[in-house]
Amino acid sequence: MALFDKILTAAGLAAAGFMAGKLIEGIGEEKRRKNTPFHFPDNIKQSDFNHLVEFSAKHIKRLTNIYVDGHNVYGTVRSQSGISNWEFRLDFNDYGILSGKYWCYSRNTDSTIPNRLGDKIKDGLGDLLKSIC
């Protein structure tokens, strides 16, 4: 093996090791975020968040079901063909606080519906948090 090939191989192995380390670090960080106990701000109740989610979901076509459990929003979407459904979850636990930041977990990564709903909720939370400060 030529010296140049050895250098390229070593550089590739170093890059792969770096990326693997970042992936493991990211998984640990997500676990830490998820395991941070969640609390609604003093002036926002669970029912306020539930109403905001329902209002935000009102005009999103193909969204057939929405369910809120604490800081998680679960949705069911009818496929474009109408033959099947798929699910998603929006996690609003930002290290224990309701900041408006969310994480999206979806069975259909090509669809914009979960993020469209998440952004509507985020915008509504921003307005709600501003009004209570």
Ranges where pLDDT stays below 50 over 5 or more residues in a row are 13-18, 20-24
How confident overall, as mean pLDDT?
A: 83
- CATH level 1 class label of the largest domain: Alpha Beta
Structural class: alpha+beta
β-strand amount: 15-25%
What's the total count of β strands? 4
Q: How far apart, in Å, are the first and last alpha carbons?
A: 66 Å
So, CATH architecture of the largest domain? 2-Layer Sandwich
* Cα-atom radius of gyration: 20 Å
Provide the CATH topology of the largest domain: TATA-Binding Protein
Q: Per the principal axes of the C-alpha atoms, what is the gross shape?
A: globular
The main sheet orders its strands as 1-2-3-4
Order of helices and strands: HHEEEEH
Tell me about this structure:
It is a single chain. The chain has 133 residues and is of the alpha+beta class. The protein has 2 domains: 1-35; 46-132, TATA-Binding Protein (2-Layer Sandwich), CATH 3.30.310. It is built from 3 helices and 4 strands. The protein has helices spanning 3-35, 46-57, 113-132; strands at residues 63-69, 72-78, 85-91, 103-106. A 4-stranded antiparallel β-sheet has the order 1-2-3-4, covered by helices on one side. A hairpin with a 2-residue loop joins β1 and β2. It is globular and about 45 Å long.
